Amino acid sequence: MSDFFTLASLVFVVGSGIRLATPMLLAGLGEAIGQRSGVLNLGVDGVMLLGAFGAYYTILETGSAVAGILVGVAVGLIMGLAYGVITVTFGAEQGISGIGIYLFGLGVSDLLFQKQVGTPLPIRGFSDWHIPFLSDIPRIGEMFFQHSVLVYMTFLLVPVVAFLINRTTFGLDLRAVGENPAAADSLGVSVARVRYSAIMIANLLAGLAGAVLAIELGIFQQNLTNGQGFIAIALVYFGAWRPTGVMAGALLFGLVSSTVLQWRTLGIVSGAASSLMAMAPALLTIVALVVISRTVGQPSALTRPFDRGK
Amino acid sequence: MTETRLLELSGITKRFPGVLANDDVDLDVRVGEVHALLGENGAGKSTLMKILFGLYEPDSGQVLIEGRPSGISSPADAIRAGVAMIHQHFMLVPTLTVAENVVLGLAESGWRLDTGSVAERVRDLSARYGLEVDPSALVWQLSVGERQRVEIIKALYRDCRLLILDEPTAVLTPPEVEDLFVTLRQMADDGRGLIFISHKLDEVMSLADRITVLRDGRVSGETTPGETSKEELARMMVGRPVQLVPDKPPLEIGGVRMAVEDLRVVGDRGTEAVAGLSLEIRSGEILGIAGVSGNGQRELAEAIAGLRAPAAGRVLVDGRDVTGAHPSEVRSAGLAYVPEERMRDGVVGEFTVAENVMLVDHDRAPYCRRGMLRFGTIGERARDLVARFAVKTPSLETPTRNLSGGNIQKLILARELSGSPAVLIAAQPTRGVDIGAAEYIHRRLVEEQGRGTAILVISEDLDEVMALSDRIAVIFEGRLMGIIDRSEVDVAQLGLMMAGSSNAA
Ligand SMILES: Nc1ncnc2c1ncn2[C@@H]1O[C@H](COP(=O)(O)OP(=O)(O)OP(=O)(O)O)[C@@H](O)[C@H]1O
Ligand SMILES: [Mg+2]
């Protein structure tokens, strides 16, 4: 245990915790926007997998990480359009539709990988960007300011999303549509348009999250996400539908995961015990959910399709 | 006098499965006029207004605004055409602030939310029309009266020329209604046209310039307050003379059937809503509770019915102590309950009429045998009750949600009275109910009293409380201000007590 509590080890754990948190945070921010509009998307993990494969394959073929990111985003938008048609235009049950999207993403990403690539070849992404001056601060710099640009971008997105939700007209429409779509409709707000936009943003971020995951890991394999999309959904509840809350949850989750990894590396816990401990974040979320769900309510219209009723 | 036709509806027809909701309806509204729309529950008033507001599409007919086809096919179109609507049920987002609710959906507000300037204009409008409300308050924290004011501010903010008000007074207290009428009059004098729907004939007589009456989806008459009387309006609505105040037979009072002793109940906001209240109701007696809403009435009823655990005190139903008991136990002790929030606590909206009839007794004979529901018996029973209580429904299989408000209320009453209860609690028994149905409900309550049931009537409608009750208990901030006998009622004194001065004053 004393190995773990060395300064170097702790600094490493924080640094990699932040890195691990990034894809979940991206996907979680998107899901928060979607849920604020009253749409639950259980298919996040599937969209992440498709985004991850799209980015991975593109980089493998072109060598351009930027192109990989763009493809991840595009994949997200396409999936968003599909989910919008299913749940908004046709008003299908959101739980089942989301599971369908997940299974689709899981299967198709694997199939394409087997057919197009076969053996996992590594890709090169963005090298870490050491922010001038800040990264030179001892310890602090190493923990917070020596990451890939994708990490900085993701964390910058937190205030941006918070601003979008709380300070813009679109955000107001979003909150109204998620709470009382009939009231929004009666004031001329197009419930369908708001929900489509929210779904597109949510899926764009999920696709991007997948791309970031593949680029950070430098690899693709079957079920690369290992359930991170589902964790992102849990984070939205954990964070009480607020971007900062989602960020706090993602960081907590990332830190617990990197701690467990570090313990395993140092041989503090056995492999079996560490897989048990890998459940810790999930348990934490459940506990947080029980506590939080008593104080803040979810968007009232979550999962409820809107139909004006002719 | 130049009479500009602000609005002209002609030949509007709208059919729902099994119902002709509007049948060739004509209606017009002039500039500066309040046009009242009257009609029984289910007559088609809300449907007509929803067509005008673009929520429903008419099967046929024409909507003209200032002589031109309105082209309204969605609420967005309606707002653009200067039409605003205050719906029968609030259309507010409870988690947003007043200012956010007001600015929602306004295209000209730009991409950035600037609630500061909105709040400013809201305060202006508040001051000009006497609509006091804090723009930065969250809507869920507001009282019902304040919410209604927010709805009107929403309409004013959009600078509407035509304002539709669908039963805006149903949930307001008498002083709130007076304030509202001052505002509405002012809005009309400013050159707007108003359509006002209410079941309260006094209100219509005092506010309206013209009155149109609908019956079964058709216009059954058009008149003005000067040319008509309440009795005649009632006859036009129902198609027969209506007795507005029930005859009460001589009292035959027996022993105490229901009592609460020093009851204390905590309300939703965590404060004590009922603060040490004691009451007794005897067999064959109606005790009315008068008081401004929000003074513990709802919590009192819920605590008696077993829907809310009291913090202290006792509840006795027909001699049995049912304090804190499960609602089913309270029911088997002989209590029947007609709740205030009928859609939430009284029926399951998605269930059919027949299913709602057997809702509380579904686990008992004759509805159920060896764990199996007996649909034959249920159907028979439902048919009988629907007929006896004159519930207007296309069929027994209709989802209850599609019935009009008054008919849902009759259905609940039918179910609750069918078990010959020892004690009946009726909260706002005629809220939103047309006068024909109200007459009927009052008659049933008096009949039930004659059978020896102890009845507690909770109502915001003072006329109703005075017409029905043998004794009137006034409550204020969860405490009993005093009990007045039927023969000694004095409206002025009641009003004082409702505002918190005790009986001794
Ligand atoms: N969406 C709907 N689907 C089917 N039937 C409906 C629908 N809305 C209304 N109806 C039916 O149309 C008729 C007219 O209803 P409407 O709500 O217009 O009555 P109303 O005059 O407003 O009554 P109330 O005074 O109770 O509000 C009723 O028989 C009602 O059951
Ligand atoms: Mg109506």
Overview in brief:
The complex is a heterodimer of chains A (310) and B (505). Chain A has 13 helices and 2 strands.
Task: Walk me through this protein's architecture.
The complex is a heterodimer of chains A (310) and B (505). Chain A has a domain at 23-229. Chain A has helices at 7-36, 44-62, 65-89, 94-116, 140-144, 149-167, 169-179, 181-186, 191-217, 228-238, 243-265, 271-277, 280-295, and strands at 129-130, 146-147. In chain A, strands 1-2 form a two-stranded antiparallel sheet. With 310 residues, chain A is mainly alpha-helical. With 505 residues, chain B is α/β, with parallel strands linked by helices. Chain B folds into 2 domains: 5-238, Rossmann fold; 267-498, Rossmann fold (3-Layer(aba) Sandwich). In chain B, 32% of the residues lie in helices and 26% in strands. Chain B contains 17 helices and 22 strands. In chain B, the strands form 5 sheets. Chain B has a 6-stranded mixed sheet with strand order 6-7-8-3-9-10, sandwiched between helices. In chain B, strands 16-19-20-13-21-22 form a 6-stranded mixed sheet, sandwiched between helices. In chain B, strand 19, helix 15 and strand 20 form a beta-alpha-beta unit. The longest helix of chain B is centred in the middle third of the chain and has 16 residues, at 174-189. The radius of gyration of chain B is 24 Å and the shape is globular. At the A-B interface, helix 7 and helix 8 of A face helix 2 and helix 3 of B. The complex binds adenosine-5'-triphosphate and magnesium ion. Adenosine-5'-triphosphate (ATP) binds at residues 16, 19, 21, 39, 41-47, 88, 402-406, 434 of chain B.
